[in-house]
Every structure is written in C-alpha cells, then in structure tokens.
Design a protein that fits this description.
With about 120 residues, this protein is an alpha+beta fold. It has two domains: about 55 residues, no CATH class; about 50 residues, SH3 type barrels. The protein contains two helices and five strands. A five-stranded antiparallel sheet has the order 4-3-2-1-5, with no helix packed on it. The longest helix has about 35 residues.
Amino acid sequence: MHNHILSLFLFASPAGGQMPNQLIQLVPLVLIFIVFYFFMIRPQQKKQKDREKVLDSLKRGDKIVTIGGVHGTVAGIDTDKKTVLVQVSDTTKIKFDRTAIANIDKQESGDKLTTKE
C-alpha cells in the first residue's frame, strides 16, 4: 500500500520498477521557479523601485496624469500624509493620494516641496 501511494506522488510504476531519483524530479520545479523569478518577479520589483524614485522626485509645477486620467499641475505636496494637491483648472484644486499618479508628463524646474501646503 505504501509503495502504491509513493508511486503516485513520484509518478513511477508500482510494479517492481526502479524508483526514479527524487532530485531529478525536482529539477523541473526549480527551473520553473527560476524562470518565474527572472521573467516576472524581478522585473516587477525593478519597475516598482523606479516608480518610487519618480514619485519621490515629484515637485511643484510638474505636469502629471493620474490613474483616473485627470491631467493637472502639482500645486502642493504633503509628505506626512503622502498626498498631492493637483490644480486641474484656474480655480479647481483636487487632493490625490501620491500613489494615484500614473506618470509625470513634464517636469518643470521648481522647488522640491517638503512641507505642507
């Protein structure tokens, strides 16, 4: 009975056949993990670090686009709450989470704002 259960897990024949090396059976799983790491996990981590760098370099006057498609200019940054005040028209300012910024269209020269506004 024990031999049948073991053979099901190791994909070997239960009838007196030679048991395959367990290390050889683990090689495909290890290779799959390596492929996933180098083609999926590692690039995603690098992309996330680059995004954090871009968000950290955000300053007043930058033209941005949010994940909702709102285009505007950064009017202020609250580093404590991690929010950004975006001016979308002459009279309208909207507060967004810093993570809601999809990309920076144009970085103009301006002072990096580190205090609340």
